[in-house]
Amino acid sequence: MQRGGARGTARDIPSATVGRLITYLRVLNGLEARGVERVSSDLLADEAHVSAFQVRKDLAYFGTFGTRGTGYTVSSLKGELKRILGLTRPWRVAIVGMGRLGQALADYPGLSEYDFDLVAAFDVDERKVGQRHGGVVVRHMGELGAAVAELGLEIVLLTVPVGAAQAAVDAVVAAGVRGILNFAPTVVSVPEGVKVEPVDFLAALKRVSYFLHEGALVEDRG
Amino acid sequence: MQRGGARGTARDIPSATVGRLITYLRVLNGLEARGVERVSSDLLADEAHVSAFQVRKDLAYFGTFGTRGTGYTVSSLKGELKRILGLTRPWRVAIVGMGRLGQALADYPGLSEYDFDLVAAFDVDERKVGQRHGGVVVRHMGELGAAVAELGLEIVLLTVPVGAAQAAVDAVVAAGVRGILNFAPTVVSVPEGVKVEPVDFLAALKRVSYFLHEGALVEDRG
DNA sequence: ATATGTGAATTGATTCACAGCG
DNA sequence: CGCTGTGAATCAATTCACATAT
Fold first, then answer.
1. Å separating the CA of residue B27 from the C1' of nucleotide D22
2. Of B117, B118, B111, B3, the residue nearest B59 (C-alpha)
């Protein structure tokens, strides 16, 4: 069951594991900011709200990064996680759909702070074309393909209305982009090899609604 | 393995199932809008991008809603899902943290459209207090407890900076709110009985980054 | 004839216990 | 002696096959 070598070319990693690696990386950033240099799987687990077994198993998919009897070096484990997650260089992202949310995302400083470079913004509305947000000038959707070639655009933040989502996804995929964050509250289809991650706060609201409603129904536990 | 009765007071439902029910509900809304009256688990599965087995198993946790040989009635299955998810009445929500994102959410028409009533907004910054967004006047955080009592506030959309997230969550929980959407890119702790749903587009970006990076590493499959 | 509902089988993820190394 | 790394065991979720109802 061993994977890859020192390069960590792993397959069949549970997506839950990838999600937790992102959390571990955040915890490590926090520890580093507080001047902590070494960390055990126990401490890491506490901060990430998972079990220490889970931390060690998650890391084991990719290699062995700790020292027995000692733990992990914060800075080096952080580096390994960044390497595993593909965060060793900035990714070039664009926003498609410059409504309220698209504009807010363009102006959000967290994007560059976390090493994602906003290189373009697009809309179908001619009135929005030419406007400037977050350091880029809005272009017309028709220029998407050109932008991929010119700017090396890799990931799109899709912030169009629900009804326009699938068509916009098709255009984005046709332009050669293989990573999409879908902010629209709908399921979209993409071909193999393209990754869509939903960012769906209405669905999150409904999960909370289910929890509160269900808790009220059960009241006393079985 | 049977659960509850006609009332559907189910326990131990996989959270993945709850997530899919939300998707099914969306698909049903779409079908209803197109005038479709009956639907099979097969069609529902196609539109939701899952298997028909999965659809039937998910529904079976809560009861039996179809007719053998025929399928499901769109409007009645929709009603059942809304009942299961606790969406038969509007939930009273407030926004905590009226920065750019908080303001954008307050003005977002989707909230009321999907039956969530924005009843209040809060910030610690005195300069923001008194401003009007999305039909509510921003109040100071100190009034949170009073708002829960007065307005029956049930769910908070937490849009404060990362560093303020845990303290804000503590205040929200102390005020008696048991449902929180956490938009800050950090893990927060809450007591038993309180539900926090992360809405974390930076984490989603990193999942996409992992996928693209990993796909590039593997290149040719197995 | 057709499509649901569900026990059984399978697959996958998490937990555990301890071997192995510093 | 402490803490990581990992095969084995447990637990959970998904898939399947088919009995069942219309």
1. 26
2. B3
